[in-house]
Design goal:
InterPro entries: Marvel (IPR008253), Synaptophysin/porin (IPR001285). Residues 11-218 form the MARVEL domain. The chain crosses the membrane at residues 21-40, 97-120, 132-153, 196-214. Residues 231-289 are annotated as: Disordered. The protein has eleven helices and seven strands. With 289 residues, the protein is an alpha+beta fold. It has one domain. The strands form three sheets. The chain has a three-stranded antiparallel β-sheet. Strands 3-4 form a two-stranded antiparallel ribbon. It is rod-shaped and about 80 Å long. The termini are far apart.
Length: 289
C-alpha cells in the first residue's frame, strides 16, 4: 500500500506512459490469439461400396503448427482398408518467434510502467534510463516488424496446408473416379488473422513511442544547444553595450565643451546692470588654443 501511495500514476495520462499501457494490452492480444489457437477441418470420403465410406474425417491442428506431425486415417475404399496421411509443412519457427516477441514486449512494457510510476526521478537522472529505454524500444519496434511479417507469411502457408481441398488430393481413394470426396467445413482461422493484425498494431505503437522516449533522452537539447547559425545577428539590447551604438563619437571629445551653467540665473545686479548666467566660457576652446 505504501508503494502504491508513493507512485506517480499521473505519468500514465501522459503520452510516454499511456502508449506503454497500450503496448502492454496489445502484446497480450497478439501472443494469446496466436499461442492459444487450435483448429479443425472436416472431410468426407464416399466410396463406391458405402460400407467402406467415412463421412466424418476430422483433422485437428494447433500452435505451434508443426503440421508434418499431424496425421489422420483415410479409407482406401478397397476392402475396408485405410491409410495414414500427414499434413505438409512445419511453420513453428515463425509462430514461436511471433509469440516470443509478444511475451517479451508484455514483460518489458510492464517493467517500464513500474519504472515510470515509482522511480521516475532515477529514470530521468542523467538521462541514462531514457537512453536505455530508447534503445530497447527501437529494438522491439524492429522485432515486431520482422516477426509480424514472418508470421503473416507463415499463416498464409498454414492456410494452404490445412485447406481441405488440397488435403483431399493426398488421399489415394480420392484419385479414383468412382469415389466422391468433399470437404465438410473449413478451419476457422479468424483468430490467427486477428493475431497478425495485432502484430502490426504493436509495430505502430512501438515506432510511435520512439518519439516520446527520444524527447526524454536529452539528445534534442544537446543538438539544439551546440547549434550556432553562421550569420546570426547580435540581439539589439546587447549591441548597445558592445561597440555598436554604444561607441562614442570620435569628434565628441573636441566639441563637448559648450556646456553652459544653467545653475546661475540672469538678473539685475546691485548697481543696476544686467548680468547673464553665461559667464563661464567653454573649456574646450582653451584646450584648443
Amino acid at each position: 500500500m505504501d508503494l502504491v501511495a508513493q507512485g506517480q500514476f499521473v505519468v500514465v495520462k501522459q503520452p510516454l506512459g499511456f502508449i506503454k499501457v497500450l503496448q502492454w494490452i496489445f502484446a497480450i492480444f497478439a501472443f494469446s490469439t496466436c499461442g492459444s489457437y487450435s483448429g479443425m477441418f472436416k472431410m468426407s470420403v464416399e466410396c463406391k461400396n458405402r460400407t467402406e465410406s467415412d463421412l466424418g474425417i476430422e483433422v485437428e491442428f494447433e500452435y505451434p503448427f508443426r503440421l508434418h506431425q499431424v496425421y489422420f486415417d483415410a479409407p482406401l475404399c478397397k476392402g475396408g482398408k485405410s491409410e495414414r496421411l500427414f499434413l505438409v509443412g512445419d511453420y513453428s519457427s515463425s509462430a514461436e518467434f511471433f509469440v516470443t516477441i509478444g511475451v517479451f514486449s508484455f514483460l518489458y512494457s510492464m517493467a517500464a510502467l513500474s519504472v515510470y510510476c515509482f522511480i521516475l526521478e532515477k529514470y530521468r537522472e542523467n538521462n541514462k534510463g531514457a537512453k536505455l529505454d530508447f534503445v530497447v524500444t527501437a529494438i522491439f519496434a524492429f522485432m515486431w516488424l520482422v516477426s509480424s511479417c514472418a508470421w503473416a507469411k507463415g499463416l498464409s502457408d498454414v492456410k494452404t496446408a490445412t485447406d481441405p481441398e488440397k488435403v483431399i488430393t493426398l488421399m489415394s481413394a480420392c484419385k479414383e473416379p468412382e469415389n466422391l470426396c468433399k470437404e465438410v467445413h473449413d478451419p476457422k482461422v479468424s483468430g490467427l488473422n486477428t493475431s497478425v493484425a495485432f502484430g502490426f498494431i504493436n509495430l505502430i505503437l512501438w515506432v510511435g513511442n520512439l518519439w516520446f522516449v527520444f524527447k526524454e533522452t536529452g539528445w534534442m537539447a544537446n543538438v539544439a544547444g551546440t547549434y550556432v547559425p553562421s550569420q546570426e545577428k547580435q540581439p539589439a539590447p546587447d549591441s548597445f553595450g558592445q561597440g555598436g551604438y554604444g561607441q562614442r563619437d570620435p569628434y565628441a571629445g573636441s566639441q563637448e565643451g559648450y556646456q553652459p551653467d544653467y545653475g546661475q540665473q540672469g538678473g539685475y545686479s546691485e548697481d543696476g546692470g544686467y548680468s547673464q548666467g553665461y559667464e563661464q566660457q567653454p573649456t574646450s576652446y582653451s584646450n584648443q588654443m
